[in-house]
Every structure is written in structure tokens, then in C-alpha cells.
TrEMBL record:
Keywords annotated in UniProt: Hydrolase, Membrane, Metalloprotease, Plasmid, Protease, Transmembrane, Transmembrane helix
Highest taxon of the lineage: Bacteria
CAAX prenyl protease 2/Lysostaphin resistance protein A-like domain location: 93-190
Protein name: CPBP family intramembrane metalloprotease
Signal sequence range: none
Transmembrane annotation, as ranges: 6-21, 45-65, 85-107, 128-147, 153-171
Pfam families in the record: Rce1-like
GO MF terms held by the record: metallopeptidase activity
Species name: Hymenobacter monticola
Amino acid sequence: MNVTLPSFLFFSIPSLVYWYFSKRKGLPRAEIFLRLGWTRGTSRYYWWAIGLGLFLAAVGTLVFYSGVIPHDFYKTQGTGAVYYATWHASISTFFLALLREAIVVALGEEVFFRGFLGGLLMRKFGFVKGNAIQLLLFLLPHLPIVFLLSARIWPLAMLSVTSFGWIAGWLRHRSTSIFPGWIMHSLGNATGALLAMSH
């Protein structure tokens, strides 16, 4: 999903409102941050996030080099790929893309979908049902991009988004933090950006 900095700010509003009213009710700051996933979390899940991010990047790379993705996908307006298609692939541009994806795209989505919504839904319905609802809500704004793709690959894109959304929710639940999912999200998006540069 190709979003801009105002979108990141927009994604943060529900969490900030929740923080404000919870604080006024006298809820301890540590409890508010725990509910929103704004904690350091359990350290081993950072390793899980890096491993899963690298695994998803490897799968994406295999798909890219299999020739399944049509060449005109990188000219499709509304996708992140079109933004990076004119960049020259290098180590420095990969890290620039990683920084951009981490701050402009992934952080806002993790704050909202896994932190605010995921936390609320998993507390109310338990992990399985709460994470499934979070996943469906995460999928909704990605559907226009998925259906912009050719008929050959939109099922693969759907599988990719749903798998990612579920795993990110699992990381949030197990680690009590949005940050492992943020790392995985950023790595996955940056790898996609690098592949777009290399098309």
C-alpha cells in the first residue's frame, strides 16, 4: 500500500485518542502503552521478525524471478512498485527504500492495524478471532491494489497480504509489541521496492 506521511499521521489518530482518554481515566501509562503495543516487547520476537522478514523477502524474490509478475505491473499507478521502478538498484537505494517504507508506510499501518485494532480485538475476542478480524480490516484498504494486478497474480497477492497480516498479528500478540511486526513489514516492503528497481 503506497501511503504518504499524512496517512501515517491519520493512522496514528485512534491510538493518540485512546491514549488521551485512557490517561484521563487514570489508567497507568505502562498499561496504556501495553494495550497499544508501544512496548519494547519480548526480545526473541525481534529475531522471529527478522527471520520471517528474510523468509518473505526470499519468497518474493523467487516469485519475481519466476516470471509470474507481468512487466506492466511496474507501470501500474497506485502501487508502490511504480514509485520505485525509476530508481537504480543498489545497496544505498535499498537502504533509502527501507527507511522510507519503515517510516512512511509500515509504521502507520502497524500502529493502527496491529497496535490499536489488533490490541483491542484480541483483548475482546481472544487471539484467533481477534487476529482474524484485524486481518480482514487490514486487507480492505489493500484490495484495490490487489485487483489492479493481472488475473494471473492477484490470487498470489491476496495470499501474500493475508499471510503477512496474520503473521504480523501473531508477532504483536506474542511479543506484546508492534515493533517486531514493524521490522518484518519494513523488510518485506523494502525488498519489494528493490525488486521494482531491478525489473
